[in-house]
């Protein structure tokens, strides 16, 4: 469990929140409670994808991420604009570690602007900083 001081830093930095295993788990639970965990799941999948070294594995993961989060009517479709979706699809013709960067940045910004302020106001977070 993080110290209240550590948890307080998360208010201003989604990056710090996501780097902390407890912070990530707390944020994910919070998003699940409001039925919007697809964003954090997509972000985590992208982080994992970027660490993939084998081109074969990378292609497999890229396809899975695309089918789960990007394609229209995907089971956990993330909310990205048409342009970002088109760029991502083009990047997947030859998957590389940066294939999902634009989409991941958009989703990070969305969580930062939208989900983080709600998380910070939640009782769950309020308990952490006591």
UniProtKB/TrEMBL annotation:
It is found in: Cytoplasm; Membrane. This is Regulator of G-protein signaling 5. Coiled coil: none annotated. CDD domains: RGS_RGS5 (cd08717). One of its GO terms (biological process) is negative regulation of signal transduction. It comes from Cathartes aura. Residues 13-129 form the RGS domain. SMART domains: RGS. PROSITE patterns: RGS (PS50132). One of its GO terms (cellular component) is membrane. Its main location: cytoplasm. Inhibits signal transduction by increasing the GTPase activity of G protein alpha subunits thereby driving them into their inactive GDP-bound form. Binds to G(i)-alpha and G(o)-alpha, but not to G(s)-alpha. Keywords: Cytoplasm, Membrane, Signal transduction inhibitor. It comes from the Eukaryota.
